[in-house]
Write a structure and sequence with these properties.
With 121 residues, the protein is mostly helical. It folds into two domains: 1-33; 38-121, Cytochrome Bc1 Complex, Chain D, domain 2 (Orthogonal Bundle), CATH 1.10.760. The protein has helices at 2-33, 41-47, 49-55, 74-86, 95-99, 103-114. Helix 2 (41-47) crosses helix 6 (103-114) and helix 4 runs antiparallel to helix 6 (103-114). The radius of gyration is 21 Å and the shape is elongated. It starts with a helix and ends in a 7-residue tail after the last helix. The structure holds heme C. This is Cytochrome c-554. Residues 1-33 form the signal peptide. Keywords: Electron transport, Heme, Iron, Metal-binding, Signal, Transport. Pfam families: Cytochrom_C (PF00034).
Length: 121
């Protein structure tokens, strides 16, 4: 009797593991789907004027508490901008700017900042 109960428990936890694996796979797939949009560097440059007020004209910030964006990884920038837009990441200076961005804006801005030289000129 005990043995049967034990076996059932094992099966339950295996099911849970399988469920966790499926949830994780779907989450990973949707994270990949986020990176499909092709960024346009030229358009990113054009719409980055407002961002430059805080992040610097070439993505190198002059303000100690504002991060540099130049040379940052493109997909990381996409994820962070989406996190600000959704409210998952919150910052009083950043959130309102991210909320105005479309998926294409985010792709273009990320492509633009990623290809800039990370060293201050
Ligand atoms: C009013 C100032 C301000 C403006 C304008 C602004 N940002 Fe930011 N941004 C910040 C601050 C401050 C942070 C750091 C937030 C934190 O500490 O979490 C930040 C963070 C970020 C990050 C995350 C960087 C990292 O290393 O994780 C990205 C990406 C970003 N901003 C992109 C942009 C883009 C693109 C625009 C233009 C649409 C923009 N920002 C406009 C102030 C600003």
């Amino acid at each position: 009797m005990r043995k049967i109960i034990k076996r059932n428990k094992t099966r339950m936890s295996l099911n849970k593991k399988l469920l966790a694996l499926i949830v994780f796979s779907v989450a990973s797939l949707s994270a990949c789907a986020d990176t499909i949009l092709q960024g346009d560097v030229k358009r990113g440059s054009e719409i980055s004027v407002v961002c430059g007020m805080c992040h610097g004209v070439n993505g190198i910030s002059n303000i100690p508490i504002y991060p540099n964006l130049a040379g940052q990884k493109e997909q990381y920038l996409v994820l962070q901008l989406k996190a600000f837009r959704s409210g998952e990441r919150v910052n009083i200076a950043m959130t309102s700017h991210a909320q105005k961005l479309t998926d294409q804006d985010i792709a273009d801005l990320s492509a633009y900042y990623a290809q800039l030289d990370p060293k201050p000129q």
